[in-house]
Amino acid sequence: MQYVNLGNTGINVSKLCFGGLIIGPLQANLPSYQGAQIILKAIELGVNFIDTAELYGTYPHIREALKKSNKDIVIATKSYAYSQESARASVEKARREMDIDVIDIFLLHEQESRLTLKGHREALEYYLSMKEKGIIKAVGVSTHNVEVVEACCDMPEIEVIHPIVNKTGIGIGDGTIDEMLKAVEKAFNKGKGIYSMKPLGGGNLISFYEDAIKFVLDLPYIHSIALGMQSVDEVIMNTCIFNNEKTPEHVKKSLQKKQRHLHIDWWCTGCGKCVKRCKQGALYLDNGKTKVHEEKCVLCSYCASVCPEFAIKVC
Q: In this predicted structure, what is the pLDDT of residue 259?
């Protein structure tokens, strides 16, 4: 496993970051002991970096894994907090539920524009004050938007950026993949720590799995890549890809047998664009939300390409 310094933070991380969303209640909903086993396998294979968030509900999974490991693990978490009071509550919740004293990286979650950055300034100031006290090591933002990456280039207090980057640009809120890459490269050159998300576009690029991951791996201005993993086999395959090693045939066969399904996130607005795009008639609206006729869905992901909320995933 390759390790790199995360920009100018002084934090050394593995090229592969364990994405903590997928094992939690929002997606696979694994019990904490099972999620911990998957995390521990990643740690065994060289991963020292875990990404999570208050929203994900995976602090218990991480806590259990940390208790059973003697390795130094870098934890990045994030919160939608916008006030000092809510930011304090988020920091204390993360420390308490993961049973850690120091949080390596704390991010403003899913920032959308310069305006939302301004609206979260009070929370940002609180995180910076916790950095001065040694409770947080580095402060940053996560985002799906080019505008936010560009804005952070001119904010020296933002040390880490967690942007969405994948081969087709699916999930980018306000531009193209070329525009995002240009902004990310600029941030990298400013000394920001860059760890990207969604190399598989929320599972929608799974049909060309290795090519999609290698596209991001080959970008010289991304330090680490957060990738969700919900089984030991997925951990083994991903570490093999990141190490440029051949994936064992039994692991490939096991993953090929896995039954996947279309997942509609709770923030679906019911706009109906996906329903119109689906040639299979697999999607329909019910009480203002998209629903799936699973027997008709062929997992083509064309629906996800028109979703303005990035609310459609393949799990």
A: 81
